[in-house]
Give the backbone structure.
Amino acid sequence: MLTVRIVPCLDVRDGRVVKGVQFQGLRDAGDPVERALAYEAGGGDELVILDVSATTEGRGHAVETTRAVRRVLGIPLTVGGGVRRVEDAGRLLDAGADKVGVNTAAVDEPALLTAIATRYGAQCTILALDAARRLDGPGWEVVTRAGRHRTGMDAVDWAREATARGAGEILLTSWDRDGTRAGYDLSLIAAIRSTVAVPVIASGGAAHAGHLVEAVHAGADALLAASIFHDGETTPATLKTTLAAAGVKVRT
């Protein structure tokens, strides 16, 4: 059995770490290089950087931030935001990313996932799937452009198609829970887990170790969190101790 990974996330805008609720009301949360160093030293297994305004503002990806973080970081790094072409993914990988996350552009042009996976491998190709509960019935729909656009696409169907097209991992964010500290959307995690064979990183809503344990039981292979680390409430190592006591296999 693979160990469960703890993944701190840096939402970045204009070279600074930010945090908000449902991708809105962003507040400054520090320097990305300093945060990356602290989270690796604190026991993080991997790090995710998401440029939260790259798509909505029509900018490119944060290559310079990626390069600066990579200089000090020894753990695997995933970077997403503003990736629209295979060449964008290549620049991020050249700058030091180990994996590239794609959300809006993959929805607009699903063949992009296949193109990235073909050139760089499925292990580098991450589907960043932002999902919100439907307003008109059961289930979840895909949202893009930092949550501003409801696509109407079924999130479970999209996860299935994306992995068939080459995505080697899914970064699954509940838009409804993001920044709310209400816990992960366990039903969403379970629905995606039952549909795909690739690893699933659960994101959105973590407030304490109990939420992480619940997400593992729902089917998550990795657990992403931001606010609880940014606000100094806990560390990845502390969470691992609690998870291990609950019977979850973690990296030590």
The domain at 5-245 is CATH 3.20.20.70 (TIM Barrel).
